[in-house]
Amino acid sequence: MSPSQPIIEAREVFKVFTAQGNRHDRRAFLALHDVNLAVDAGRFVALVGPSGCGKSTFLNMIAGLVRPTEGIVRYKGAPVEGVNTDAGYITQDDNLFPWRTLQENVEVALEFRGVPATGRRAEAGKYIAMVGLGGFEHHFPHELSGGMRKRAALIRTLIYEPDVVLMDEPFGPLDAQTRVILQDELLKLWEGSGKSILFVTHDLVEAIALADEIVMFSRAPGTIKRRYTVPISRPRDVFRIHAHPAFGDFYDQVWRDLKEEIIEVALEVRER
Amino acid sequence: MTAQEAAAGAMGVPRGRGDTLLRAVEEQERARERRARWGIVAGRVAVGVGFLLAWELASGRLVDQFFVSRPSAILGALWTMLVEENLLYHLRFTITEALAGYIIGASAGLLLGFALARVDLVFRIVEPFVVAFYGIPRIALAPLFILWFGLGITSKIAVATVMVFFIVLINTIAGIRAAPLPLLQVARVMGASEWDLQRKVIFPAATPFIIAALQITVPQAMIGAIVGEFISSNRGVGHLISREAGLLDTPGLFAGIFSLLAVVLLMNQGITFLGNYLMRWSPRRGITRDVV
Question: From the CA of A219, how many Å to the nearest CA of chain B?
């Protein structure tokens, strides 16, 4: 991979889904329409857009869990074919394995990768300490709070050092305070790591607080409507991001564009 | 260390009175748990004794003793069987048949379930056949198996096997297909191979179903063995029971039934231990006791 080459690249990507429900009325619908995007290594990119615009589908394509119907998605220059085990993938649900303790959950990716037990344990211990979960190693997921589970989901992905981390509304289900704390922890874990992050969110404040760049999808069929560079330097204070002098105008600008799409969606729903 | 203690330790806040309270509540909980356990044991003994007592008293007064016998007479018959008719010898055969059928049927059901359920196309092709075979009244196969495998122990094992096999197979398939897709996807992205998926994601996700099947089929295996013995055999508890029935010996009949009951209870206990171990991660067994 040459240094100038983007780490992720989508070219003229289309996706058609067919509803599996009624056999006699197999309706297909267009989820993505001519998506073109290049992400440079080391960037933190937020994907925003109205519900159902295909952001998650796009993320799943980079993870290799969904194939484009047409067009091509490249990862480090090579087309994504099959599951992309080089990337990290974190969803809205923490998806911890309920039958594994915290430590076993954090270790699992290394286990899949054939790392011996002693090495796994040491590495997991390091990450567990990093996010303040020491003392909970032998707890099962149902014995942990939402924030703790989310931290566990985060470090069990970071532990195998993926170059790209795909995050699909990871902090969606959390309460407002835990959310900001985790945003702060995520930034601290990411800054200086050189990793690229693609982060789907519905929360514009979150997008502004975390990302270098915001990519806005249009309503379905989703296509990229606009890209913005966040005019706030790093390191950032997520707890007081709204007090930054550049925040207000930038937020208004992004929100105006998003609002247009949301209103259109609402009108289309009413017509139906 | 409980979650609460660990949380307190992690936050590092000194709080003498709170800690004392914590200790006190824990001690109370443990005491309550002990009391509850004893209460359950006492309750079970009371129900059992009450049932036997009611039976003893009703027999000969409300119901003809010829039909229902009475616990004291059954105990006597059990003793006679034990010392004079070699009950243990017969039990050994029946247990061997039931256990062998159970193990063969359960392992075959598990293995085939894993082979069939993972590939959707394969599953959709074989599904009607599995359902059809499951729908056969399996006990009706017993005479056929005696024809095939002879009068010995093999035919009884075969009957017990089919009693167990289909239930385990169908539950295993249902369990595998209930494994949550997001867990499978996340595991794949984290680098899991197909073998990893089967062993570390799909199997644990299916355990609640599999354990349920293993529990349901314990008495089924016993039914298979006994019915096989009823149809034709010269040993086993089923043979004993059918002989007592031929002699119109009600106490002996009940004695045979009770000895089978004891065996089934023991086997069930074993499966319960296994289930508790495999399902130790399940929230129901965790700290959620406070839910009303």
Answer: 25
Cβ <8 Å between A112 and B191? yes
pLDDT of residue A44: 96
Q: What is the DSSP string of chain A?
A: --TTS-SEEEEEEEEEEE--S-TT---EEEEEEEEEEEE-TT-EEEEE-STTSSHHHHHHHHTTSS--SEEEEEETTEE--S--TTEEEE-SS----TTS-HHHHHHHHHHHTT--HHHHHHHHHHHHHHTT-TT-TT--GGGS-HHHHHHHHHHHHHTT--SEEEEESTTTTS-HHHHHHHHHHHHHHHTTS--EEEEE-S-HHHHHHH-SEEEEEPSSSB-EEEEEE----SS--GGGGGGSTTHHHHHHHHHHHHHHHHHHHHHHHHH-
pLDDT at B281: 85
Give domain status of residue A208, yes or no.
yes
Cβ-defined contact of B191 to A113 (cutoff 8 Å): yes
Q: Domains in chain A: how many in total?
A: 1
What's the pLDDT at B288?
A: 45
Residues on chain B bordering chain A, Cβ-to-Cβ distance under 8 angstroms: 1, 3, 6, 9-10, 182-183, 185-193, 196, 200-201, 204-205, 207, 281-283, 286-288
For chains A and B, count residue pairs whose Cβ atoms are closer than 8 Å. Answer: 78
Q: Is the pLDDT of residue A193 over 80?
A: yes
Q: Return the amino acid letter for A122.
A: A
ipTM of the complex: 0.88
Average pLDDT value for residue range B13-41: 87
Q: A41: distance to nearest CA of chain B, Å?
A: 20
CATH number of the domain that residue A20 is part of: 3.40.50.300
Residue A94 lies inside a defined structural domain of this protein: no
Q: Do A109 and B190 touch (CB under 8 A)?
A: yes
Span A67-113, pLDDT tens digits: 999 999 999 999 999 999 999 999 989 999 999 999 999 999 999 99
Per the domain annotation, does A244 fall within a domain? yes
Q: Looking at CA atoms only, how far is residue B126 from chain A in angstroms?
A: 21
A98 touching chain B per CB within 8 A: yes
What local confidence, expressed as pLDDT, does residue B245 receive? Answer: 85
In this prediction, what percent of chain A has a pLDDT beyond 90? 79
The reply to whether A97 touches chain B by the CB within 8 Å rule is yes
- In the numeric block, which tokens belong to residue A150? 């989310």
Q: Is residue A120 part of a domain?
A: no
Question: Which of A20, A99, A107 should we substitute to test contact with B (largest number of B Cβ atoms within 10 Å)?
Answer: A99
Return the SS3 of B147.
helix
Contact A140 B287 (CB under 8 A): no
Residue range of the domain that includes A44 = 1-86+164-170+197-272
CATH class assigned to B70-290: mainly alpha
Record: contact A143-B3, CB cut-off 8 A: yes
Nearest residue, CB atoms, B189 vs list A87, A100, A140 = A87
